[in-house]
Structure formats: C-alpha cells, structure tokens
Amino acid sequence: MRVLGRVAARLAGAVFVLWMVATITFLAVRLIPGDPAQAVLGGPGSQASPEALAIVSAEYGFDQPVIVQYFTQLGRLATGDLGRSYALNMDVGPLVLSQLGGTLLLAVLALTLAWLLALALATWSTRGGTIAARVGSSLEIVAAALPHFWLATSLIVVFSIGLGVLPPISTGGVAGIVLPVLTLAIPLAGFLGQIMRESLLVALESPFVLSASARGESELGVLWIHALRHAALPAISLSGWAFGSLISGAVVVETIFARPGLGRTLLNAVTLRDVPVVIGVVMTVAVVYILMTLLTDAASHLVDPRLRLT
Amino acid sequence: MSEAPAALTVRNLRVGFGTAEPLVRGVSFDIAPGECLAIVGESGSGKSVTARSVLGLAGAHARVTADRLELGGQSVLGLNDRAWRARRGRDVGLVLQDALVSLDPLRPIGREIADSLRLHTTLGATARARRVLELLDAVGLPDPELQVRKLSGQLSGGERQRALIAAAIALNPPLLIADEPTTALDVTVQAQILALLERITLGGTAVLLISHDLAVVSRIAHRVAVMHDGRLVETGRTAQVLGSPRQEQTRRMVAAIPADKPRGTRLSPAERRDTPSIPGTSAVTPTGIPHDRTVVLEAIELAKSFRRPDGSRQLAVDNVSFALNRGSTLGIVGESGSGKTTTARLLLALLAPEHGEVRVFGQPWSAASEKTRRGLRASVGAVYQDALGSFDPRWSVAAVLTDALGVRHGQRAPQTTARLRSLLDEVGLAATVLPRRPLELSGGQRQRVGIARALAGRPEILICDEPVSSLDVSVQAQVLDLLDDVQRERALSLVFISHDLGVVQHVSDHIAVMRAGRIVEIGPAARVFAAPQHQYSAQLLAAVPRLST
C-alpha cells in the first residue's frame, strides 16, 4: 500500500512539473518581441501583407486574449498534441520523436562512458599511492572544467585533422558518434569522479573496511563488496541531474558535429522563432528528465537497502 | 610446559609512521590459550596500533619491527599480503567498537558473517547459511532466522555487537582481538557483551582486550598491561595491578574510576589553585558543598511525545517531576532511549512540554514566552556531550567565549580579554588556546571550553547532558573534578545526565533513575546506591563497571 502511495505521489509531482514547464515556456515565448504571425509567414524579412497576417492570426488563434491562448495550448498539450511547426510545415510530435532517438543514444552512451571513466579514475587515484592521488584529482578538476565547445573543437583538431582516424562530422556510422560521446563524457567523468573519489575515501577509512580486512578479505574484495557500493551512492543520485545536463550539452555537440538530434532541432527552432517546436522539445526533455530521476531513484533503492526499510 | 605454544607472542614490537617518533616503542607480551589479557591505556598511547600490528593491519605507511611476533608459535614477521590474508579471520579475529559502523551498513549481517566462511572454507552457500545461524545462536542473538537478513542499522547496539563478534569467531580463531568492544554500549548491555567474551575465553580462545577503562576490563581479564606513551609500564595479574599498582600511571588510572568514590573525592592529581570560600554561604554539607533548601529548578509532571516514522506516537518523557535545591546536584541516569536527553531539552526550554511545566526560581519557565525567558536564559547554562559539534568550527575559542559573554562580534572591549582569561583560568586552560579552533583541541580541552562557555553567562543552574561520556577515563576524571570545583566556587546547582551510573554516583546528591520516559526511582544518592528500591535500579547498579578484584 505504501509503495502505491509513493508512486501516486511521484506521478502527481511529475504532472505538476510538466504543467509548470508548459506555463513557463508559454510565458517566455510571449516575451519574444514581434508578431508570431510574422514567424509563421517566414519571419520579419518576408514582408507579409496585413491580410495574410490577419488570416494566420485567426487560424492560429493569435487574435484571442492571452489567457484563452494559454488554456487552449494546455488543453492541446494534455491530449498529447504538440501542435504544428510554423517553419517546417509538419506536426511537432512526429518531428520531435524522429529526433529524440539520436539524442538519447548520445546521452546514454556519454553517461555510461562517464561512469566507467569516473570509476576507473576514482579507484586508481585512491589505491595508487600519493602520485596517483595527485594526478587523479588534478585530472578530475581539469576534465570537469572543460567547456563542450572547446573540447569538441580540440578533439576534431587532434583526431580528425591531425590523426585523421575519426570523421569530424557525424556520418551515421559507429565512428561518427565517438567524438560527440567523448565530448560529453569527459567533463561529466571529471565531475562524477570527484564525487566518487571523496565517498570512496570515506568508505575505505570506515571501520567496516577494517573489519572486512581482518576477516581476510583482499583489497579487491574490499573494493568490490564494500567500498564501491558506498562510493556509487552519491554519484547515482546525481546521475539524474547529469542526464539533464547532457541533453543541454547536446545542443552544442550536435551543432558542432552536424548530428541530427533534439539539440540541433531546438537551436534551429529558436533561430526561426518556431514556437511550437521549442515548446515541444522543452516538454519532451522535461519528460525524459522526470523519467531519468525516477530511474536513478530506483537504482538508489537497489544499491542502498536502507532506503527500502521505511 | 613448552608443548602448548602461546596463542600470541610479541617481543620488542615497534611501530612508527613516517619519520615521526615511533608510536609503539618496544612492547612485549604473551597470551596463553584460554587467557584474557587486557591492554589498557589512554587514547594515543599506542594500544590500538599494537592490536592492529598483530593482524598486519597497522596501515600502508606503518613501519613495524619486532624481535618476535608469533601467532600460535608461528612467526608472522615479514609475511606477504597473501599469507597475511590467509591468517586473518582464520588464526586471529578482530572485534571493533560500535558495530553500526564496523559492519557494512549496506549489507545484511548474515552476509557479513558468512564472508569469513566464504574466504577460508570450501563450504557451500547452504552450509554457510546454516553455520551463520549456529553462530548467531552461539553469541546469544535471539531469533537468528529473523536477524540474518537485517542490516546493522536495524539492530540495537547490543545485537549489533553480538553479530560483529559472531563474524570474528566464525572460524574459531585461537586468538580474538577486541578493541574497545563495549565502549559505545549501555552498562547493562556492556555487562552482557563482557560475559559473552568471557564465555569465549572459557572455550579456550585467547582474548586480547583493548580498552581505556580499567574497571571494564577488570571483570574478565586475567592479566592487565597498562600502556603509556608507546610502552607497557606495568603488566601483571588483574587483582595485583589494580589492588597494588606499582607505577604512577596505573595509580592515576585506578584513581580516575568514579564508581564507589564518595562525592567530593578528587579523581585526578591536584593541579589547581586553592578553592576560595564563598562569602555568605555558611551551610556546608559533609562533602563541603554549601547548599540550602531553596528550590531553583522544578519539573512538574513533564510529558513529551514524538511521532514515529509510521505515524504512531511514542512517549519520550512521561510524568517526570523533581526539584533541584540550590548548590546541589541531581543525577539523572538511564540507558539510551530512556528520555534523558529529551528531559534535558525540556529543562532548557528548547522543547515545549505537552503536559506539565518547568519552573526556574519559582517563576514560570516552560510556560513563559521566549521573550520573557530570554532575560533568564543566562542563568541556566548547558554543557553537552559532543563539545566539538556544539561549536561553530570556523570560530576560534576566543570567538566562542566572546559570543557567550554576550559581547557582539567585532566589538570586543578591552575588559573582554580580561574576562576571557579569567574564564579560561577557571576551567584550567591557558590563554594560549584563545586563537585556536575547536578541531585543534583535544577532547578534554574542548569539553573545558564547553564548560567555560556555559559559565560565561554567570549561570546559577547548569544542565549537563552526558558531559564526559565521549572522554577517556583519565580525562573524564579531570572534567568531573573541574565541574566539582566550579560548583563549589559558584554555588551552582547541577542537573547531571549520564548513562554511566558510576559517574552519576560520584557527582550526585540526589539520583533519579529513568526508564522508558519515566522516573522509576528518585532519592538521595547514598540511599539509592545502598538500597535500591526498584528492581531496575538494582539491575543497573549490578552492571556498573567497578574494580572487581
């Protein structure tokens, strides 16, 4: 019964978040100067006639009071209708769905790689002596501070132009996704690595590790059975947030590597004032973010049995 | 006699870290099978490092040398990591303090215990599970089938400690090392765990017991070795060492035990100036403490409950009443969860009672508004157990005390420094601690600063909540003496809360025994100790560690 109650509370929270996202995006879009009808007709440079503007305004409901427009849009969103793109002349729903896969793949791969790198770095820097600790923590700080656009350009310079081993733009094959994933994973790995190393150090200093060693447990056993679980806990809780940051990082990365995806769609839509697409992308990202938070919660419960007690 | 080798032989053991002076400087001892040797010393004396060296776990940076270091007659000097691992758990087991952190909080206790079996035997999973149940039964944990799946956080302190012992004796190692195995426990639970260790000794296991508390180990140790500054200063049969200590260090430790020492007896070597007499107080009790019949603090039928996680309410304090006379000490004793700390917070008006009231100097206290209370707050001081946690870590001692004097930050008048110095002098600290931060002080110094802070507002009443329970016995002795001195000098009235009946016996004029939120017995200290009326008081009293020689 208690589990059901918690699930219900979570769902209610998710609906509330989506409503807030829709409202804020709606208000933000109203703040963009200019007539939205202009955007539908090809932007301010298109010199549309007043008659054409009036027709479009009536068709899209721009002549209605703001509050009416708000509720009309909420109603549409509630039924899952994301509206129609001004610029691309297609429905937003299918458009977003077609772009979602590429971005999700990118983010999931980057998160996985970041975890592996962070675990390796944290383990090595806590177990490898003083020099490893210094080098490890410096690497983490530098990696965490790297901006995506700089890292992407540098990787292209080294691997595409210099060594010529990887393509500078995404060609669709496996080779094309390597550099974008690296660009997203390296800063995140630095960040997660810092957190993991800290909690790993605390765990390795704990009396239960001494108890385990006194039972004859090997160093590897201590790490694997005891310490790494403790080290993973804070990193797991941060992964939901990290996934969100990966998707916003995708805007930069997809543009630089000319990869199709939500990020690039969003950027294009903003440039073209394509309001329905902007709202559609933002709502989709919000849904993904909520799902990811639920997943990390479930993962925390899996790793930490104390959470299952109450 | 040479056919049975000693379970442990140590000759001239030296352990150092880095380039600093060695922490352990030439320690030698033997333990025979079925014998219990206790190494007793203050924190920093090197006793834990000695114990860990026997397991090869002194640390990656430790330099361990010895003429002989033998487990069961076999030398373990210079063993490689693999060979050490094979011995740990099989030839020697380790029990640490507080099993809440000594057992992995993320794993069920059954798994932790089974780990020893997994590492050293070829038993299958079912055989291991069966053995774990046997072990839990052997250490006296009721309902083993129910307990194996629990996490250490779900068990009580005593249950956890039993589970930890079960993990250490899973393979029947001939030597068991117990490092402060009862320090975090209530007295009655402590007595049970000591009895369990004694039973293990009787089974033929050699036990190396490490403790800071002579009274605790005297119950079960056959021999005692007193460690000071990296050396064993005195070793001998327990009765002989405790009964006629030869060394100064041992004498100090024996003198520091508060139980059975009458009120006013000094526990630590004299180090202070003469005690000035207080003008205007002529009534002096036999113990030299002036007090009269004026009631300064009164608790009337206090009740307070808390909501449990599942929503039901638990009465933490239930119908608690007492009166505190000027200049006297009321000791409140009870085990964890008995409602002592809640009572303290009610007395300090940090919590509001659901029923009843607290009166200070006959005035409403708990029933008054915080605004009216604020004027009186200075006259009710508080000393807490965790002195470190009660300070802002970024504040220096000077900042802590200046704030307590009521001087605004950054507005120190010239006379403030003089007042700070006299406060520090009163608690036996030099003015050199003023610029230091709490983390840089020792446990005893911190508690002295805590007392100085409580005294800064010139209180007439002092509420002390477990003021000495995180201190070594010898430091505890100094702090207890200090409290005794300031009480005498300032004619303070004290409420002294502790789980340690020995300490309470030493400091109190009146004693209230609490259990499950209620006062089960209250009366003059001498009467309660000589002839406890309630069965629970008698039980508590029997469990007090005292020098049983």
TrEMBL record, chain B:
Q: Which residues form the ABC transporter domain?
A: 8-254, 297-541
**Any keyword Lipoprotein?**
no
Family to which the UniProt record says this protein belongs: Belongs to the ABC transporter superfamily.
Q: What is this protein called?
A: ABC transporter ATP-binding protein
The UniProt GO MF terms for this protein read: ATP binding; ATP hydrolysis activity
Superkingdom field: Bacteria
Pfam families, sorted: ABC_tran, oligo_HPY
PANTHER family in the record: D,D-DIPEPTIDE TRANSPORT ATP-BINDING PROTEIN DDPF-RELATED, TRANSPORT ATP-BINDING PROTEIN
Q: Which UniProt keywords apply?
A: ATP-binding, Nucleotide-binding, Transport
